[in-house]
Amino acid sequence: MLLQSLREQVLEANLELVRRGLVLYTFGNASGISRDEGLVAIKPSGVAYDSLGPEHMVITNLNGEIVEGDLRPSSDLATHLEIYKNFPNAGGVVHTHSEFATAWAQARSPIPCLGTTHADYFHGEVPVTPPLTPQEIDSEYEKNTGLVICRYFRDRDPDAVPAVLVASHGPFCWGPTPNAAAHNAVILEAVARMAYYTMTLADAPPIARELHDKHFLRKHGRNAYYGQVKAK
Ligand SMILES: [Zn+2]
């Protein structure tokens, strides 16, 4: 069986979404990529999470052709593939309809950065894509969803804001591994919930630029100092 370790990582990322209450029934999907092989492992479409094993993950190439697997891949595969093709550091991609992040997506409102929880993970607001055109919906809908995401990030750093809200739909998140992408999806939902509650209490101002930068940059990039030094 190809890519045993990646299959297990992708399964684990999918199960994490269930454990954290981000998915209902078979909603949601996580994938991972082997950059060396140019192959993607993704959850199969419409299979109950409690019957999933690593052997059920579907292996495809970056054109979406199945390389190994008897099941159909997640219907959002083409969106994941566009993200992998355009974001070179993405090692995992996650899509859910988690409740609060989806509420912001449906409101077509970016999630403003109101505090340090958000700033720790997302260096800026979490954006909303422009709506798809009728033509983009009619033909190659999932691929066009990926393209609209990647167009937004063409002049922006997808590693600095590893999440997006697809208008009237829901969030996509990514990260260097499938586990990191799932983690970002969990944090995004928490941040979306906090922002919703905050805005019901007051018309809160965004976090100060200096505090935003401090919290993001102490965890990410060359001068990060949060956490423990990684063993060599
Ligand atoms: Zn969806």
What's a quick, concise take on this entry?
By secondary structure, the chain is an alpha+beta fold. The chain has helices spanning 4-19, 77-86, 99-107, 116-121, 134-138, 141-152, 178-201, 209-217; strands spanning 29-34, 39-42, 58-61, 66-68, 92-95, 163-166, 170-175.
Could you describe the 3D structure shown?
By secondary structure, the protein is an alpha+beta fold. The chain has eight helices and seven strands; from the N terminus they run αββββαβααααββαα. α1 packs parallel to α7, α2 packs parallel to α6 and α3 packs across α7. The protein is globular and about 50 Å long. The structure holds zinc ion. Zinc ion binds next to loops.
Question: Largest sheet, described in full?
Answer: 7 strands, antiparallel
Small molecules in complex: zinc ion
Helix/sheet category: alpha+beta
User: How far is it from the N-terminal to the C-terminal residue, by CA?
Assistant: 31 Å
Rg is: 17 Å
Estimate the mean pLDDT confidence: 95
Percent of residues in beta strands: 5-15%
| Helix-strand sequence | HEEEEHEHHHHEEHH
Q: Can you tell me the overall shape?
A: globular
* Helix coverage percent: 25-40%
Q: Could you name the ranges where pLDDT drops below 50 across 5 or more consecutive residues?
A: none
How many helix segments? 8
Number of strands: 7
Strand order of the largest sheet: 4-3-2-1-5-7-6
Give the arrangement of secondary structure elements:
Elements: H1 4-19, E1 29-34, E2 39-42, E3 58-61, E4 66-68, H2 77-86, E5 92-95, H3 99-107, H4 116-121, H5 134-138, H6 141-152, E6 163-166, E7 170-175, H7 178-201, H8 209-217
The chain binds zinc ion.
